[in-house]
């Protein structure tokens, strides 16, 4: 799971063009939005598209998606679970 978390951190940096941010700067359990990394709704769309492209996952539009995007750890768990199906 740690490898996938690292990949997602790298994807966040790449997809959102975060300059001066490294994977080590992103706390795995910190919130991605508002607090923590401070992403916004536009970032969520871009990140969602990047995840769909990279992992072939359809994100959908439900309340659960918000929970999946809560942190890097929750996003990695969602990707891992979805890829096993």
Structure description:
The longest helix has 15 residues, at 41-55. The chain is an all-alpha fold and 85 residues long. The protein has one domain (2-84): Non-ribosomal Peptide Synthetase Peptidyl Carrier Protein, Chain A (Orthogonal Bundle). It is built from four helices and no strands.
Summarize the structure in short.
The protein is an all-alpha fold and 85 residues long. Helix content is 56%, strand content 0%.
Topology:
Elements: H1 2-15, H2 41-55, H3 63-68, H4 72-84
Helix pairs in contact: 1-2, 1-4
- Assigned CATH architecture: Orthogonal Bundle
CATH class category label: Mainly Alpha
> Could you state the CATH homologous superfamily?
ACP-like
The general outline is globular
Number of domains: 1
Please give the share of residues in helix.
55-70%
Low-confidence stretches: none
Fraction of residues in β-strands: under 5%
Straight-line N-to-C gap:
16 Å
Helix/strand/pairing class, anyone? Answer: mainly alpha
Largest sheet: none
Radius of gyration: 12 Å
Work out the number of β strands: 0
Mean pLDDT: 91
């Amino acid at each position: 799971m740690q490898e996938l978390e690292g990949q997602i951190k790298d994807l966040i940096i790449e997809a959102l063009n975060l300059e001066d941010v490294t994977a080590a700067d992103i706390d795995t359990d910190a919130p991605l939005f508002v607090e923590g990394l401070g992403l916004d709704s536009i970032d969520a769309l871009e990140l969602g598209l990047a995840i769909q492209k990279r992992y072939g996952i359809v994100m959908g539009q439900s309340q659960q998606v918000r929970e999946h995007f809560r942190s890097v750890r929750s996003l990695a768990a969602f990707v891992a679970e979805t890829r096993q199906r």
